[in-house]
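Re: How this chain folds, sequence and tokenised backbone to follow
Notation: Tokens come from a learned vocabulary of local backbone shapes, not from coordinates.
Start of record: The labelled sequence and token lines come straight after this line.
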Amino acid sequence: MTGHHPHTDEGTDTPAPESAYAAALGPAAENTAVTRLQTALRHDGEYPRASLEREFRLRRAALADRLALHTRAEHDIAEAARTAYELLAFDLADGRFVLGPAGPGSPAWQTSARP
């Protein structure tokens, strides 16, 4: 995907961050969840590896996005864009765990994967 702008969700039909993250864990608890998933991925478990991998990537991207929205620091915005595109790349390669109207191949994500 080229030409994306990590600062904007222009052209996408996604909820506002306040709505999207309204029921999310607090930042510290979310960070703990990301760390636990990262640890679980290093060990064989009862869940399919791809399922854990997607949840890890999704939670990591959401946490980075929330930090970028809070700080508005350029390096945090860049990290949020990077982790969002890593999730998008995973979904393009696998796609089994994707729900919603705009799949990973949708042109909606050419502007920005963060939304």
